[in-house]
């Protein structure tokens, strides 16, 4: 065989070998997600998914075990819709709502329990406070708030009350005790009977005090009540009654009506879709949330709902992130809408 032919055979052998090595490397990198000199191990990643995922079944890093959660009572309709379906798809990701021992349930209580290692993650209807970040830092970890839905505060009144709406300023003056009769806001000569849950009850009250009362205290004439259910019953019975709560808890009610709210008297925005459905047609027909004005911020009392995650690179963090990721899927957002809240997408 000539030297020329031997050289051709040698070059061909080298090319075939390199080709086979290339194919093997490609198969290996595809199997183990080999990128830029490192192996991407999904099991060790404790991060929030940024890509759009359609269904619960496609969410990654959902841990196994029993995880305690708690916090905001405004979250109850979401948990009722979401958790059973979530559990059916991820049966080993078990969730248990945990009540506080002595304090009333609520966002602040849930965050407190999370800080004290009583919960894996918390549900909140308000953003974290600076002091809560500081408390976490003192305990050697950080907290992360992940928004998953939009909610609004709706104002419930007796269905027979004839008032076109309230401005934020008027609502504030009612709850600090300056306005005491409905005729002071264009209504009938009727005493205002305002109800609220205690400040320590949860995120809705804290949000209301901070954003509507702007830090001022409730008036001495404001009546305290334990639960939203009790308050709505009182307003339905009391001709001059008024109460505030999550829009999902008020708008579709058959016993009370929700008032339009505005930043001024010429821009009242209803929390319900117009035209208003008469309560006499309820429950066969119910008023529905005015989703567009919540999402755009046109409705003046809106807020976000959060999952609060403990960032400690432990299974608790993995559980909180998994729950948030599940809620942020297209399926989760659809169920959030079904529960009476506004999806982020």
Counted beta strands: 14
Low-confidence stretches: 1-5, 23-44
CATH topology of the largest domain: D-Maltodextrin-Binding Protein, domain 2
Which architecture of the largest domain would the CATH scheme give at its second level?
3-Layer(aba) Sandwich
Shape: globular
Oligomer: single chain
- Whole-number average pLDDT? 88
Backbone structural class: alpha/beta
SSE pattern, N- to C-terminal: HEEEHEHEHEEHEHEHEHEEHEHHE
CATH top level of the largest domain is Alpha Beta
In short:
The protein is of the alpha/beta class and 345 residues long. Helices cover 35% and strands 19% of the residues.
Q: Can you put this structure into words, describing what you see?
A:
It is a single chain. The N terminus is likely disordered. The chain has eleven helices and 14 strands. With 345 residues, the chain is an alpha/beta fold. It folds into two domains: 37 residues; 283 residues, D-Maltodextrin-Binding Protein, domain 2.
Present the secondary structure layout:
Blueprint: H1 3-32, E1 34-35, E2 38-39, E3 65-71, H2 76-89, E4 93-97, H3 107-115, E5 121-124, H4 130-138, E6 142-157, E7 166-167, H5 168-175, E8 193-196, H6 203-211, E9 223-224, H7 228-237, E10 241-246, H8 247-250, E11 257-259, E12 261-262, H9 291-296, E13 302-311, H10 315-327, H11 330-338, E14 342-343
Parallel strand pairs: 3-4, 3-5, 7-12, 8-9, 8-10
Antiparallel strand pairs: 1-2, 5-13, 6-10, 6-11, 6-13, 6-14
């Amino acid at each position: 065989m000539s030297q020329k032919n031997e050289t051709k055979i040698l070059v061909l052998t080298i090319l075939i070998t390199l080709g086979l090595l290339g194919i093997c490397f490609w198969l290996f990198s595809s199997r183990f997600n080999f990128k830029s000199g490192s192996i991407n191990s999904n099991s060790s990643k404790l991060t929030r998914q940024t890509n759009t995922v359609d269904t619960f079944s496609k969410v990654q890093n959902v841990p196994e075990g029993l995880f305690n959660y708690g916090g905001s009572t405004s979250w109850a309709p979401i948990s009722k819709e979401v958790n059973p379906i979530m559990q059916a798809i991820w049966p080993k990701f078990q969730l248990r709502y945990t009540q506080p021992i002595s304090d009333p349930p609520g966002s602040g209580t849930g965050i407190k329990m999370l800080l004290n290692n009583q919960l894996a993650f918390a549900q909140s209807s308000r953003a974290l406070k600076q002091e809560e970040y500081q408390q976490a830092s003192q305990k050697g970890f950080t907290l992360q708030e992940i928004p998953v839905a939009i909610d609004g505060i709706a104002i419930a009144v007796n269905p027979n009350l004839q008032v076109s709406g309230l401005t934020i300023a008027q609502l504030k003056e009612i709850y600090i005790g300056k306005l005491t009769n409905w005729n002071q806001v264009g209504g009938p000569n009727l005493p205002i009977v305002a109800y609220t849950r205690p400040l320590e009850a949860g995120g809705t009250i804290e949000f209301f005090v901070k954003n509507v009362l702007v830090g001022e205290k409730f008036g001495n004439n404001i009546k305290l009540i334990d639960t939203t259910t009790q308050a709505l019953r009182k307003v339905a019975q009391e001709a001059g009654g008024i109460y505030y709560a999550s829009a999902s808890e008020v708008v579709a009610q058959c016993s009370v009506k929700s008032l339009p709210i505005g930043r001024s008297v010429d821009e009242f925005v209803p929390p319900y879709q117009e035209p208003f459905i008469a309560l006499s047609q309820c429950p066969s027909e119910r008023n529905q949330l005015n989703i567009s004005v919540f999402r755009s911020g046109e409705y003046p009392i809106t807020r976000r709902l959060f999952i609060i995650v403990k960032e400690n690179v432990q299974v608790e963090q993995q559980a909180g992130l998994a729950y948030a990721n599940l809620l942020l899927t297209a399926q989760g957002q659809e169920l959030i809408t079904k529960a009476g809240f506004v999806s982020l997408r």
